[in-house]
């Protein structure tokens, strides 16, 4: 793979150039232990060693609220609203890239989601080797410690002042070459990056699942009918949907209309919805197909551990640990659920 | 530059007629403003928009018509969109998307008998299949139509049912759960009609639509008659928001009712605990 060396002091110049044609977002420290991707500005301090961004990066491709059509109530016409903002996400960890890759696949299935696709097509992703592992993360256990595609460049900090940058696309390479005197990486530098990755992966492995993730779908399938387990797990669920909102692979949405005060024009928008919310599967007349919190809780884990796997061959969970942090009742933890189920099945055998 | 395409943009249609079917249910006849036929197949649904109120999915009740651009929906007044629909005057516009989803395999049914089981509003989409067969009557074998309704006053399409039941080539049986003084017919749930019919299990397909509670019981009856599961077709109702397999609302375990359904061969969903 083609790789270059970029020194820390060269980065501001590059960011300047990139920001003239892209909205650039970088990881920043918002508060103690709290990081977010924020628009890059001259003075922005990039949190190179961040462990986890609080918000999932789906916000950039599927905003929490997004117009789909604008309509006119008088002549009953409607026109599509499709955003094509050019964005650069600089510093994305592999598990988040994996989540985006997964959304690419799911939003492209059975007919492309044009709103997602247009934002995605106009977004450049620069990956970053994680320097730290969030306490709640287990991405190494669900095959998300490394990605081979889904980035335009991938950055590894090989010394306090230098990055090895692997090229993932022609566009990425072009953008990198906008900098003056960017040099190719030597074999030794590539080796240094490889070792840093191995060290990072080894650190993350300690927080893995402790068994191979490929077993999860089968376990989940077996455990679907264990109502007692699910009831017990979801006993304190508040049905708040926080786990849905912070999940980088959750993409369910609701569609609503809004009109102006004169009832002349309006818009139809979609906004994030969550399968944990009470009315998610309610139909006309009031019948609810998942009326109880435990049914919704189970559905969410089945989706992460089985249903998404059936569609694309990987778990619908990238192990970022966001839901673990966000859950107010402290019951959302895919690692714990997968492990408990595995343990239970092992003991029965 | 190519103009943006979005599957979320509805097409305009005009309300041409409204007919009251029962206290809460009205039959709406629409015409596509494009002058084109809706091009749906029996069992498919469309998304109907009332701008400013919202969008909701409805099964098309009329059979496919190649010769004109009108189509019918029968709608129960129950939520915001359905209430807004009921308040429309003829000549008003709505937006439509679709048709979406799977449909009954009319080609597979050719030369075979069909047993319909319609519970309550389930008759609305069944009607699309039934009238398709009546239009092509010579291509199909025996047709038996079972209709179950909670109460006589909730019966819909009564004139048309009366008309069909006079035909010699369709066997219509009706029942109500709770009779009133005027009701002369069968009393009981839809399964009480099964002892009254004779079918050839070798050659009979079943199309059933009704409230979720109905399916298991009717499927049991079909099994007793010896109809194999692969010839039983059901249509399921879920809350389809996008109709495009994305929004997640209509999931039945791992499948999407909007794109994998709403019409399913029973073998496809027999193992899905969330189906009924």
Structural overview:
The complex is a heterodimer of chains A (349) and B (276). By secondary structure, chain A is of the alpha+beta class. Chain A is built from 11 helices and 12 strands. In chain A, strand 4 (65-72) and strand 5 form a beta hairpin. Chain B folds into 2 domains: 11-100, Translation factors (Elongation Factor Tu (Ef-tu), domain 3, Beta Barrel), CATH 2.40.30; 106-235, Nucleotide-binding domain of ferredoxin-NADP reductase (FNR) module (Rossmann fold, 3-Layer(aba) Sandwich), CATH 3.40.50.80. Helices cover 18% and strands 31% of the residues of chain B. Chain B is built from 6 helices and 15 strands. Chain B has helices spanning 80-86, 106-109, 123-135, 158-165, 212-224, 266-269; strands at residues 11-20, 25-32, 45-50, 54-59, 70-76, 93-100, 113-119, 143-149, 170-176, 186-187, 204-209, 232-235, 251-252, 255-256, 263-265. In chain B, helix 5 links the parallel strand 11 (204-209) and strand 12. The longest helix of chain B has 13 residues, at 123-135. At the A-B interface, strand 4, strand 5, strand 11, strand 12 and helix 9 of A face strand 4, strand 6 and strand 13 of B.
């Amino acid at each position: 793979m083609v790789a270059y060396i970029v020194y820390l002091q060269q980065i501001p110049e590059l960011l300047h150039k990139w920001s003239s044609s892209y909205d650039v977002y970088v990881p920043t420290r918002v508060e103690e232990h709290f990081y977010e991707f924020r628009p890059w500005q001259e003075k922005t301090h990039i949190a190179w060693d961040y462990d986890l961004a609080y918000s999932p990066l789906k916000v950039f491709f599927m905003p929490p609220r997004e117009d789909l059509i604008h309509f006119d109530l008088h002549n009953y016409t409607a026109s599509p609203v499709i955003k094509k903002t050019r964005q650069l996400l600089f510093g994305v960890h592999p598990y988040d890239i994996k989540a985006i890759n997964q959304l690419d696949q799911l939003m492209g299935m059975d007919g492309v989601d044009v709103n997602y696709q247009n934002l995605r097509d106009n977004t450049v992703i620069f990956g970053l080797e994680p320097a730290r592992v969030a306490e709640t993360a287990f991405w190494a256990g669900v095959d998300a410690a490394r990605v081979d595609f889904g980035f335009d460049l991938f950055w590894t900090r090989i010394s306090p002042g230098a990055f090895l940058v692997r090229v993932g696309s022609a566009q990425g390479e072009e953008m990198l070459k906008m900098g003056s005197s960017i040099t190719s990486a030597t074999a030794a530098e590539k080796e240094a990056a490889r070792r840093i990755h191995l060290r990072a992966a080894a650190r993350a492995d300690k927080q893995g699942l402790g068994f191979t993730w490929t077993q999860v779908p089968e376990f989940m399938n077996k455990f679907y009918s264990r109502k007692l387990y699910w009831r017990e797990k979801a006993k304190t669920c508040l049905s708040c949907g926080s786990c849905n909102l912070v999940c980088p692979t959750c993409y369910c949405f609701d569609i609503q209309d809004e009109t102006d005060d004169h009832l002349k024009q309006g818009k139809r928008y979609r906004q994030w919805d969550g399968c944990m919310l009470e009315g998610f599967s309610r139909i006309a007349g009031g019948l609810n197909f998942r009326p109880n919190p435990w049914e919704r809780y189970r559905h969410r884990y089945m989706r992460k551990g089985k249903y998404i796997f059936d569609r694309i061959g990987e778990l619908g969970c990238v192990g970022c640990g966001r839901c673990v942090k966000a859950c107010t009742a402290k019951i959302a933890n895919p690692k714990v659920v997968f492990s408990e189920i595995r343990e239970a099945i092992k003991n029965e055998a | 530059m190519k103009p943006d395409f979005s599957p979320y943009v509805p097409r305009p249609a005009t309300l041409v007629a409204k007919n009251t079917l029962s206290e809460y249910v009205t039959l709406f006849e629409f015409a596509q403003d494009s002058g084109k036929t809706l091009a749906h197949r029996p069992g498919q649904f469309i998304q109907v928009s009332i701008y400013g109120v919202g969008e909701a999915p409805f099964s098309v009740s009329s059979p496919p018509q190649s010769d004109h651009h009108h189509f019918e929906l029968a709608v129960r007044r129950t939520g915001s969109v359905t209430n807004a629909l009921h308040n429309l005057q003829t000549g008003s516009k709505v937006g439509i998307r679709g048709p979406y989803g799977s449909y009954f395999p009319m080609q597979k049914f050719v030369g075979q008998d069909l047993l319909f089981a319609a519970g309550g509003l389930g008759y609305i989409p069944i009607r699309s299949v039934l009238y398709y067969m009546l239009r092509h009557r010579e291509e199909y074998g025996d047709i038996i139509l079972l209709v179950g309704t909670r109460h006589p006053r909730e019966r819909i399409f009564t004139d048309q049912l009366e008309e069909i039941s006079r035909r010699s080539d369709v066997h219509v049986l009706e029942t109500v759960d709770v009779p009133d003084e005027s009701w002369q017919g069968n009393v009981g749930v839809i399964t009480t009609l099964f002892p009254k019919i004779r079918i050839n299990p070798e050659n009979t397909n079943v199309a059933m639509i009704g409230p979720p509670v109905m399916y298991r019981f009717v499927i049991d009856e079909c099994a007793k008659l010896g109809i194999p599961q692969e010839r039983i077709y059901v249509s399921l109702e879920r809350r389809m928001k996008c109709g495009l397999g994305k929004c997640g609302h209509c999931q039945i375990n791992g499948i999407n009712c909007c794109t994998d359904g709403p019409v399913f061969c029973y073998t496809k969903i027999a193992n899905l605990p969330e189906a009924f």
